[in-house]
Each structure stands twice: as structure tokens, then as C-alpha cells.
Amino acid sequence: MPDHKRDVKATIIVPAFNESAVIHKVLKSIPRRVKGLSRIEVVVIDDGSTDQTAQEAQKANVAIVSHSINRGLGAAIKTGIEWVKLNGSDIAVTFDSDGQHYPKDIHKIIKSLITQKADLVIGTRFALKQKIPKDRKVLNWLANIATLLIFGVSSTDSQSGLRAFSKKAIDLIDFKGERMDFSSEILHEAKRHHLLVKEVPIKAIYTSYSRKKGQKNLNAIPILIRFLVRFLR
Amino acid sequence: MITSIQVLLTAFIIFAISRAFLRFREKAITAPLFIFWSLIWTVALLVVLSPPITSKLASFIGVGRGVDVIVYVSLVLLFYLVFRIYVMIEDLRHEITYLVRHIALQKSSKKSSRPLSSSRKRGSKK
């Protein structure tokens, strides 16, 4: 856990694939000052976008790491974690680029990480009473069940895109999933390394844009197959 | 008495064994893989040249007909090979991602010329 007496730096990792329509607005909404932190850095992982995502992100004055070809959300997050390891940071936060998250929730998960001395904080969308599309609820419920059955980890929102990692978690968690399957793997890694995991209620903003850009319902099948193959290999 | 189908299948099996040998000589496949394929094709050759072997095997393991044994064994083998190919493709995807990440980090910062701490090092399997 970060020491309160010294400077504490956090890096917000924003994975993005063809998000030119909203990326600038999303990056501008990210808080640059959070109580308890001396510095916040934002890094966009442009996952092989074919539109103007990188150029739009550049306008927000953030660091940009560009994949030459699209490798998936999990791969982009892992690149972000590697970037954090290379550039040094006490806390890493993952934040979706489609505008689904409420920027002020970054305060909440960082506060929880520091005050509860947690190693991994998951922002859960299902703890608050809010409007969530039914198909998303079902999909997440199935993903939570699969995570419990395959990895033996219980979570109310295993697929949440808003998470915070402590320095210990940044160093220890190593996942292989390159698509949406990485989310459950992170929880499994946390369990394997006996890390303290906490969940914090967060708001979810579902717009027609974020619904279109988000996880496709039919993606659940290949994700499940990948889980099983990794288990059987 | 050798039938025409036996001649055709024997010719195909000899061709397959020769291809496996050529690939092995070119070092495109490893020795264990060459042995594996040679064994598979040798068994197939025995079955083609002496079909009663399958009937004996069928009665030994309690399956009705010799041809059923061939179908069951082939299906199991094919499923296993599909699984191995799936795993191999997954490994290739990870290798590609490792390279893409390495290049991206190298371009973004001079610091990233340090090796990645990821478990996915080239040529390693976890």
C-alpha cells in the first residue's frame, strides 16, 4: 500500500478502440486531483484504432501508447499495466473510454484502496439501485457465475471496467486473457496472490453509444470457450 | 486378394508418411511429432491391409463392428487434434500481442527498452 507520508502517484489507464467520438470528452472529465494523491497521470492505450482516437486523445494532453493492430481490451489493459511498471506509479486505475463510468467514482475507488488498505478495488455497478439494461444484468450474472465456477472467485461485478490496483497488485497480477475474459482472470490472480479485494458501488451511464460500443451479448460464448480451453490445456 | 480401395488408401498413406518425413528433414516438425504421425499412419496402413484386425479389436473392446472402432477412434483423435490446434492458435495470438505491446511501449518511451515483466516471453510457455 502507498505510504501516506510520501508522494503518492496514480495512473489512470484508458483503453480505447475507435472512440474518436467521445474520447476527448471522457479524458477531459477525468479528475486530475484526488485527495491523498500528489499526482495523477492519464495514459490512453489506443488499441489499433482505425479512426482519429489517438489524435483526439492527444488534444487532452495525455500520454498515448498505440498498438499497431487491435489486440482486445485485456491486451490493452495489460499494456497499460506494463506502462505503469515502466514509468512508476503507486496506484493504477482502469477506466473505460466509452463514457460508461462516472468520473467522480475514481475518487471513491482510490479512497477505498487507501483507507481500507486494499490491493484491488472493483467498482461494482450492481450495488446501487440504478437503471441497467436487462440483457446486461443477465450477461453479468452469467459472467459472475462462470467466474465463481471456473476460478472459484465470487464477485458482484466481475466484468466491471473501473478498478484500482495497489503497487503490490500491479507487480503481482499477471493475466493472459486478451479479450473480455481478462476481467475474471484478474480476480483469480488476486486470489492466487492472497490480495485483499474490495468492491465499491459505482454509477453506470448507459447511453446508446456505450451500449453499441460495449461488450456484445454473443461474445459470452467465445469467452466461455477460452476459459475452458485455458483450464484444460 | 487386395481390392482397389486398399491400393488407393495404401498409396495415400505412403504419400502421407513421405510428407511427414520430408517435413521432419526440413526441421519443420520435431522428432516426437514425426514419430506421432508415423505411428498414426502405420496403424492406418495395418488396418487397410488387414481389415480383420479391426474386427478382433472390436470384439475385444465390446464394439459391434470393426468399422465402428475406426470411426470412434478417428473421432476422438480428430477432437484432440482440433483442441491442440486451438491451443496453438491461442499461443500464437499471445505471441503477436507480446510483440505489439513491446513495439508500442518502445515507441512511447525510451524506458520501455527494458524487458517486459510479462510472463509471455518469446518461446516460453506458461
UniProtKB/TrEMBL annotation, chain B:
InterPro entries: DUF2304
TM spans (from-to): 6-22, 29-49, 69-87
A Pfam family hit: DUF2304
Region feature (Disordered): 106-126
Domain of life, per lineage: Bacteria
Start-end of Basic residues biased regions: 108-126
UniProt entry keywords in alphabetical sequence: Membrane, Transmembrane, Transmembrane helix
Protein name: DUF2304 domain-containing protein
